[in-house]
Design brief:
Layout lengths: L11 H24 L1 H4 L2 H16 L6 E5 L6 H8 L12 H8 L5 E9 L4 E8 L2 E7 L2 E6 L17 E4 L7 H8 L3 H4 L2 E7 L3 E6 L6 E4 L5 H15 L6 E5 L7 E4 L11
Parallel strand pairs: 1-3, 4-6, 6-7, 9-10
Antiparallel strand pairs: 2-3, 4-5, 7-8, 8-9, 10-11
Helix pairs in contact: 1-3, 6-8
């Protein structure tokens, strides 16, 4: 029904005349409405405006194209279906806020801005899609999760690059605070392959390989300070280059370290 490419109108002079006429018509009808306000309120007024919009469309003020920007995962067909604009619909009668609300109900859309563009008569839709920050493994399925911890309900999702894997009941709801802690050392955060939310109250971080990497057990409270402690230890001693299996930071005054017993020459110093 609509094309993505904006095409300049060859009838702009005709439309300019039509617009001028429409302004006069709308002004006259508005004046009449004010004079007979008590009789035109509600249904009668709605019928009056419908007539105005029909006349405006007849004078060339109808929607020709829908121009969309910012959509990577949201299909153009889904957008057109959400807009549900009919052929030759008056561009003056469109409820912009209603259109925005419809589009923002689509799965991948975080927010959008809808505008009219006259000469030519286009509807401009600028979309901001959700940014996937992790994948949540739950009941045998994988769900993309955005930076705010919202689970994006899709049938299939293929990440564009290696991404953090979440596990555990309620993990997505606590992702935002975990990401804030990661900002203390973003280079270290890139080494984290998985984050497991344990007993719906604290995190285990898995560095290196997901199946046999190093597990860092964070406390329920103050886990951001515990992450910073691991960051400092790594910068000073390169702990993730050693043959270690886990760090337990759940206790305030000590760190419990599990060492690979097969490595005899490894010494860990606090």
């Amino acid at each position: 029904m609509y094309d993505k490419v904006m095409k300049p109108s060859a009838e702009w002079v005709y439309r300019l005349v039509g617009m001028t006429g429409m302004i006069l018509i709308v002004s006259s009808m508005a004046l009449i409405a004010m004079m007979f306000r008590d009789d035109i309120i509600g249904e009668k007024f709605g019928k009056l405006m419908s007539a105005v919009y029909k006349i405006s469309a007849d004078y060339g003020m109808y929607v020709e194209d829908v121009i969309v920007e910012g959509n990577k995962r949201t299909s153009y067909d889904d957008l057109v279906m959400a807009l549900n604009l009919s052929d030759n619909e008056s561009i003056l009668g469109i409820d912009i806020e209603k259109l925005q609300s419809k589009i923002e109900q689509l799965t991948w859309v975080k927010s959008c801005v809808v505008k009219r563009s006259f000469f030519p008569n286009n509807i401009l839709v600028n979309i901001e899609e959700r940014t996937v920050k992790a994948i949540w493994e739950y009941e045998g399925r994988y769900y993309p999760v955005d930076a705010e911890g919202n689970v994006i309900e899709v049938e299939e999702y293929e990440p564009d690059a290696p991404i953090l894997v979440l596990a555990g009941e309620g993990a997505p709801h606590h992702l935002a605070e975990l990401l804030r802690a990661f900002k203390q050392d973003e280079e270290l955060a890139l080494k984290i392959k998985a984050a497991v939310f344990v007993s719906n109250r604290r995190w285990d971080l898995v560095f290196g390989h997901r199946d046999n990497g190093i597990v860092v057990k964070l406390p329920e409270k103050g886990f951001d300070a515990a992450y910073q402690k691991i960051s400092l230890l790594n910068k000073r001693q390169g702990i993730f280059k050693r043959k270690l299996t886990s760090f337990d930071l759940r206790y305030p005054n000590k760190i419990i370290v599990d060492i690979d017993k097969s490595v005899d020459d490894l010494v860990y110093k606090r």
